[in-house]
Amino acid sequence: MSVFSVVQEGAPIEVFALTKAYQDDLYEKKVNLGVGAYRTEKGTPWVLPVVKQAEKMLAADDTLNKEYLPVLGLEKFSAAATKMLLGSDSQALLENRAFGVQSLSGTGSLRVAAEFLARQLGYTTYFVSIPTWENHNLVFKNAGFVEGRTYRYWNETKRGLDLEGMLDDLRSAPDKSVVILHACAHNPTGCDPTQEQWKLIADVVEEKKLFPVLDCAYQGFASGDLDKDAWSVRYFASRGFEFFCCQSFAKNFGLYNERVGNITCVVKNPNVVTNVKSQLTLIVRGMYSNPPSHGARIVAHVLSDPQLFEEWKGCIKTMAMRVIEMRKGLREALEKLGTPGSWEHITSQIGMFSYTGLNEQQSLHMVNNFHVYMLRSGRISMCGLTPGNVDYVAKAIYETLTN
Ligand code: LMR
Predict the structure, then answer these.
(1) What pLDDT is attached to residue 116?
(2) What's the rounded Cα separation, in Å, for the pair 109 and 58?
(3) Which among 13, 15, 132, 248 is the best mutation to test ligand 1's pocket, defined by most ligand atoms within 8 Å of the CB?
(4) Which residues does the annotation mark as catalytic?
(5) In what residue span(s) does the Aminotransferase class I/classII large domain sit (predicted)?
(6) In terms of domains, do 208 and 270 share one?
(7) Backbone conformation region of residue 199, classed left if phi is above 0, alpha if psi is from -120 to 50, else beta
């Protein structure tokens, strides 16, 4: 009898199981609105031209080698990523109260931050929005957090933010709680607080001494503007909070499988930086020793070269605008068909995702009857919509809701 026979089968990861099911599906009109990954108008993945250009330059650079990076990663990358997030005029940066740590995309950054908060600072409880990106729970639990709690976020009836519910739930937080906030383009709802609402959220975070972990996976993707999308993070910095912000470069650089991420750490006193870095170093050393270089070099190269940087901003605009166009297209098509309900939220939501309002049964119906792959929660990735399939998807929604 194998020692492994005690192992039970784990639950599938919905978003990746959906991708596999989509790939295996032979139906001609199938549509993948599951995973949050950009697709072109033709429905194909996009390697950003600026990324290809940077890769060519890196390949031709004989000074580069494959030696280990430092445990906290490529300094040029983390400094550029931190500056892009906080802004070059950031007070925290000028006062040496902010630094970056290269990590493994958004997830790896969250995990390192969570390990640090649990091990070094003794935080035990984390708060996530209902709904949230489902991996937040696994990451924080695996990092040693004892309790996962939720705060209300999405108001199903008004299809918008439940600010009062959110603030009430955060007010009930026990001591030593961490709150995970989506910096922009909330996943899965596509619904962000306004600036005024962010101020009220920050008030409660301050009052309850919550430690903010900002998850920033979509800078540039929400509005097409890097500064605008970093507003909440810069606001938290300007209020004097200490926090971690976990940045992913999967979406805005299209570097999904290169695992490029950065933890921006903002503290009150520059004197603590050396010790904090030394403990982060030990956490990384015990998990994966040091990060890979390829993706970080690409990002560092693009962010530090003014011409490439401009080109990249153009790429982000292309992606963000295509998504915005598809939002309009889907709403129009749904309204034209006379689909029951209001579809205004499709265009008011931002970022990669839309929370359609379809319930679990309806979402499964979309998958099983129309081969339109979407999460059970009703989340769709707007990037999977194209001019060629938007009418088909709208019709599928219409039929699902009317039959
Ligand atoms: C998503 O939400 O679809 C992406 O962020 C992929 C993932 O890892 O879940």
Answers:
(1) 98
(2) 25
(3) 15
(4) 133, 215, 251
(5) 29-397
(6) yes
(7) alpha
Residue 84 has pLDDT above 90, yes or no: yes
Span 203-216, mean pLDDT? 98
pTM of this prediction exceeds 0.90: yes
Do residue 249 and residue 170 come from a single domain? yes
Q: How far apart are CA 35 and CA 403, in angstroms?
A: 27
Mean pLDDT of 127-134: 97
Exposure of 81 in the CB half-sphere (CA atoms within 13 A): 35
Asked if the bond preceding 131 is cis, omega within 30° of 0, the reply is yes
Quote the domain boundaries for residue 195: 75-304
**pLDDT over threshold 90, residue 221:** no
Same-domain status, 18 and 96: no
Q: The CATH number of the domain where 165 resides is what?
A: 3.40.640.10
What ipTM was predicted for this assembly?
0.94
pLDDT of residue 300: 98
* Ligand 1, residues at Cβ distance < 6 Å: 15, 35-36, 133, 135, 187
* Residue 57 within a domain: no
Query: Per the structure, how many domains does the chain have?
Result: 2
